[in-house]
Amino acid sequence: MLRSVALAIGLTVPSLAAAQVSGLGEIVQLDILDGGLTKQGTYQGAIRLTLADGWKTYWRAPGDAGIPPQFDWRGSRNVGEVSFTWPSPTVFDQNGIRTIGYEKQMVLPVEITPKRADKPVQLKGKMSFGVCSDVCVPGQLKFNHELDSDAGRNPTIAAALAARPYSAREAGVKSATCRLSPTKDGMRIEATVRVPSTGGTEMMIIEPGDPSLWATEPETKRQGNVITSTAELISDSGNAFAIDRSEIRLTVLGGSHSVDIQGCTPG
């Protein structure tokens, strides 16, 4: 969701320069990749954004000044459940502003469960996103593609799937706790995870799990095998809210690998 700070930093000022960009098509192109049927009978595909040199796009939790990708599947046929696998992103620091995303290209694997196994699957809709270089441009591109059930293994999709974060079990997570306390504008959260280092400078992203809530940029620190991240959770409506710890998603982004942790216990 586009936050007020993103409007101030990512759109309002850069949009003055955006008029100088000759066209979105020269910055980014979208195509749908086919990966055929899985053993479970689902369709494996991917949405690929190919970016011009020097441009980047954003992860699902893009930072205060980013624009997360959003999808409108209206127009699609025989589409049941849609599941994304997000490859580990990169943390960018530009003029003191940290954002999270991808450069050169974003390949986002998507697994589609058809409503009827004996019918073809048509992906038709539009993707809204943001791209940034010296200026930031909000964009929207349409797609219309019938998935190929006979397609073989796609190495580009396979590489994107292999670039996913480790699960908590794979990374050796021993515990994940969240301490909550009220603030003037919302709720302070301190997430503590006992996990070996993921390499280099680390950042732990906190996602509330509730689309009406958002988290400020976290402050992350590590001591031994314990990494701690602190942020403030704020409601879009400004009203009081409750937190379901089982829905909180923690992602540790490191220099060698990332870790995806679903849920935390009281700390």
From TrEMBL:
One Pfam family this sequence matches: DsbD_N
Signal peptide: 1-19
InterPro entries: DsbDN
Domain Thiol:disulfide interchange protein DsbD N-terminal stretches: 40-143
Keyword set, alphabetical order: Signal
Annotated protein name in UniProt: Thiol:disulfide interchange protein DsbD N-terminal domain-containing protein
The organism of origin for this protein: Falsiruegeria litorea R37
